[in-house]
Amino acid sequence: MQEPIIVPVILCGGTGTRLWPLSRASYPKQYLEIDSKEGLSFLQCTVNRIKGLKKINDPIVICNEEHRFIVAEQMRNINTKTNSILLEPVARNTAPAVIAACLKAMTNYTDPLILVLPADHIIKFKDTFFNVINKALINAEKGEIVTFGITPNKAEVGFGYIESANELDTKKINAEKILRFIEKPDQATAEKLILDKRFSWNSGMFLFKASSFINEVLSYCPDIYKLCKKALCNIKLDLEFQRLDRETFSLCKKISIDNAIMEKTKKGVVLPLDAGWNDIGNWEAMWEVSSKNHSGNVEIGKVVTRDVKNSYIRSQEKLIVGMGLEDLIIVESNDALLVINKKCSQDVKNIVEHLEINGDPAGTTHKTILRPWGKYTSIAEGPNWQVKKIIVKPGESLSLQLHTKRTEHWIIVNGIALVEIDGNKKTLKKNESTYIPLRSKHRLTNSGKEPLVLIEVQSGDYLGEDDILRFEDKYGRII
Fold it and tell me: Strands 122-123 and 298-300: what pairing?
C-alpha cells in the first residue's frame, strides 16, 4: 500500500501584537528571529521542523500579500521550495485560509493529507512531535479530522482549551473524541481545567484527509467554500506568488477553523502532544523558552545589568543599563521602548490598540521596512521633509517610478549606484549625490558587488509611500 502524500499548509497570518514593539503588522512575529545565535525565524523553524517526516511534500504557505517578499526570501534562505505561496488580499481568520489552501492542494494531488501548522510556534522535541504525527496519520486516513491537544503545565489564560471524551494519555497517544472547545478562560476557570486530564490546550494544528475536511466544509460553511473556490479559480499569478481574487475572497466570513468546523463536526478527534510546545504568545513566554544567565536573565543586544533577576532585556540599537530590577520585560526598538512587569505581558496588545486608535503609526509600522530589493529606515522627519537610510542588495534595483508630491536628494554612503533620471543614466560612488525633481521618472540600481547604502532626503507637501507611480518593476509591483 502506497504511503499517503502529506501537504503541509503553513499559516502566516496574524500580527502578534503581544510581542510589540518588535512584532508589528508591517513585520509580524512569525518572521522574527527566535534566537539570534541560530538566526532563524519562527516561520523558518516551522518549515525546517517537518522536513524529516516521511512523504512530506513542499509546503503551501498562505500569507498576507504585504509580506510576500519576506516569505519568499526566508524560504530561499533555508533552501526550501514551496508548493505555492498563496496571498490573502485581506485577513479572514483561519477557516477561509485553510479552505483555500486545501482546495489548492487538491488541484495538484487527488486526495492528499493536509497538515495545518501555524508559522509561529516552537516545538522543542521533534522526535516526540513526529511520533504523534505518525500516530495521527492512522486517524486521518480513516477520515477523522485530527487536532493536537497540548498537555498543560500551568493555568494559562492566553490559550483556548479542548475537552475530550476521555482522559488524554501522553504515553499511549490514543485519539479521543472532542466534546467541545473552550475560549480563553479566566484564571479561576483555567486552574480548574488543568486538574482534569480531559482538558488540553488548543494548539491550532490539524491533520486530515483533504476530501474529509472539504465534505465538512460543504456541510457547515458552504458559502465560504463557494467563495474560496471562486477566489482560487480567479487567481492571479504574481511572479512566484498566487494572489487570491480580492473581490471574492473579501466576501468570506471572518471566522476561525474552530468556530466554522471543529465545534460542529462529528469527525473531530484530539491526540495529546507533550513535545515542548509553546506559541510564544507574549514576552513572558519568550523569556521562558530563551537561554538565561546565572541570574535568570535573558540579555540580547547592548545590555549591562547589576543586581537584576529573572528579566528579559533586549536592545535593538541603544545601550540598556539595568540595576536593582526583577521580573521585568524591557524591549527597545529604534522607535519604541517597552518596560513592563512580566505578569502584564498579556496586556501589551491593549497598548497597541491604544496606539492604533490614536493614529500613532508606531502601533503597526516599523521604522525599518523590508522590500524585495533591500530595505529602508526612516531616520528623521518633519512636516514637509523626511530622511531615510536606504540599503539596496547587489544586483537589485528599485522600480522605474515618479512622485507627484515630493522631490528627493540621494547621497551615496557606500557602494556603486546606477541612477536613471528621465532616461539619462549615470554612475555615482561614495560621497557623490544627485537630485530627483518632481515628476521625474527615475530608477536606482546597485551595480556593484556589495550593498549599496545611501541617504535619501525627501521634501514635499506629502511624503506617504502611496505617492508613487511605477512604470517598470522586476518584482511585478505595477498596479
Answer: unpaired
Q: Reduced to 3 states, what is the DSSP secondary structure of residue 219?
A: helix
Helix axes 222-233, 94-108, angle to 10 degrees: 50
pTM (2 d.p.): 0.90
CA distance 179 to 203: 16
Sketch out the chain's domains with CATH numbers.
6-278 (3.90.550.10), 294-354 (no CATH), 368-472 (2.60.120.10)
Give pLDDT tens digits along the chain (479 positions): 456 799 999 999 888 899 999 999 999 999 998 766 678 999 999 999 999 898 899 999 999 999 999 999 999 999 999 999 999 999 999 999 999 999 999 998 989 999 999 999 999 999 999 999 999 999 999 999 999 999 998 888 889 999 999 999 999 999 999 999 999 898 999 999 999 999 999 999 999 999 999 999 999 999 999 999 999 999 988 778 999 999 999 999 999 999 999 999 999 999 999 999 998 889 999 999 888 999 999 999 999 999 999 999 999 999 999 999 999 999 999 899 999 999 999 899 999 999 999 999 999 999 999 899 999 999 999 999 999 999 999 999 999 999 999 999 999 999 999 999 999 999 999 999 999 999 999 999 999 999 999 999 999 999 998 999 999 998 887 65
What Å distances lie between residue 414 and 91, 137, 170, 392, 411, CA to CA? 39, 54, 57, 10, 9
Residue 80 Cα distances to 23, 71, 205, 472, angstroms: 24, 11, 21, 29
**Nine-digit cell string for 133:** 504525527
User: Which residues share a beta bridge with 385?
Assistant: 459
Nearest to 163 by CA among 135, 190, 132, 201: 201
